[in-house]
Amino acid sequence: LRDQALAATNLLNLEQFGPPVLPVYVEPKQPLLDKDKKPVKIEKDRASPIVEAHRRSIYLRVERKNINPTFETFDHAARIVASSQRGRTNTPLQALAVMNETEFVEATNALASEMATVSGGSTAQLRWAFRTVLARDPSDAELSTLRDYYRASTAAHVDGDVTARRLTANVILNLDAALTKE
């Protein structure tokens, strides 16, 4: 999902090979606490100083003791035993991750910026973004729903079109068709 969102918005670094890289880590606003309500000491990672936010997920370093929060939210396979298939899951945390994780937010902003370059008005921009993410044209009902949401977002915010494009891009990247493989 991460790679798909970055690829659809032209942010994915397709460079092959090289050492593993660290995923983006955002410091928590409040200290993490253990079960006894004592602050948990987080050690800085010194093994790989390379941080490249937009490398393919296969190059992100994964450790048993230090699991990427996004991977954990999406129930990544345990690294103890090889697995050829994963079970299907869908929890509210997955939707929150796609709406709020740093790399997904960057993808949303990039898609919104690209939408702004499309000429022909908001309908053309919505159709372009939908086609870019889902590789198909939206149905009339889908386009109508997106257009209604775009208009409502424009009316509700001071910087109307900018915010509406961003919010609508977020919706498109969070559509079930963009998140699941049928």
Terminal CA distance: 14 Å
Shape: globular
How many H/I helical runs? 8
Structural class: mainly alpha
**Biggest sheet, open or closed, and with what strands and sense?**
none
**Low-confidence parts:** none
Q: Please provide the ordered H/E string of secondary-structure elements.
A: HHHHHHHH
Estimate the mean pLDDT confidence.
76
Strand content: under 5%
Helix content: 40-55%
**In total, how many beta strands?**
0
Description of the molecule:
This protein has 8 helices and no strands. It has helices spanning 2-8, 69-73, 92-100, 102-117, 121-134, 140-156, 160-173, 176-179. α4 (102-117) packs across α7.
Summary keywords:
mainly alpha; single chain; globular; 182 residues
Structure, briefly:
By secondary structure, the chain is mostly helical. The chain contains 8 helices and no strands.
